[in-house]
Amino acid sequence: MNHHVTFGGKRVALAGHRCTEGEKAPSFTVIDSGLNVVHSDLFRDRIRIYSVFPSVDTPVCSMQNVRFNREASHLGEQVVVLALSVDLPFALRRFCAAEGLERIHAFSDYLDLDFGMKYGFVLEGLRLLSRGVVVVDRDDTVRYVEYVPEVTREPDYERALSVVRRLAGE
After folding, report:
1. What is the mean pLDDT of the chain?
2. Residue 158, H or E segment
3. Rounded Cα distance, 72 and 104, in Å
4. How far out from the chain centre does Cα 48 lie?
5. Which residues are CB-contacts of 107 (< 8 A; sequence separation ≥ 6)?
6. How many Cα atoms within 13 Å fall on the side-chain side of residue 158?
7. Cα angle at 118 between 116 and 25, to 5 degrees?
8. Which of 3, 10, 50, 82 could link 134 by a cystine bridge, Cβ 3.0 to 4.6 Å?
9. Distance CA 110, CA 75 (A)
10. pLDDT per position as a tens digit, 48-59
């Protein structure tokens, strides 16, 4: 099955495994702002929101991270937001500090594209991640996936958050 999005109106193929609701969430490794390898199992037993985006240096990506940071403050400690892009770890640290983002965990997938390939978010030919949201429950089951059809648009926050609230028992 072809897996595509548009980016500024141009059709772009997505590389990697297209993630679907109900499947076991693949484990992955990413890099934190201190250049340390972080394994996704670190967040096991929590509800996870994977907020996926191309680059913090664009307005829509900035809005997406600010929004999920704000929402995370209302979701409690049982929910964690992982912001994932191929931005360099230094850029992610700078951005989070400048925006005062303290409720999201920003990680870079620049080294191996491990997350991007396992979840099908790699924009072919660009070596960027597409935009989207994945929600994973405490049992490592994918409960929501959105590949935003046009990368320059924001994700459907309300749909993703309603799944998270249901999983959290709110």
Report:
1. 95
2. helix 157-168
3. 7
4. 10
5. 30, 31, 32, 38, 82, 83, 84, 89, 92, 115
6. 0
7. 120
8. 50
9. 29
10. 999 999 999 999
Task: State which H helix or E strand residue 165 sits in.
Answer: helix 157-168
Active site members = 61
- Check whether 170 has a pLDDT greater than 90: no
Q: What is the DSSP letter of 63?
A: H
Is residue 14 within 8 Å of residue 123, measured between CB atoms?
Answer: yes
Angstrom distance (rounded) from CA 31 to CA 106: 9
On the 0-12 / 13-18 / 19+ scale of CB atoms within 10 A, 69 is buried
pLDDT of residue 108: 98
* Separation in Å, CA 117 to CA 21, 107, 113, 114, 160: 17, 15, 6, 6, 21
* Residue entry with tokens 């484990």: 27
pLDDT in tens, 25-54: 999 999 999 999 999 999 999 999 999 999
Which residues lie below 8 Å from residue 154, measured CB to CB, with a gap of 6+? Answer: 60, 63, 64, 67, 131, 148
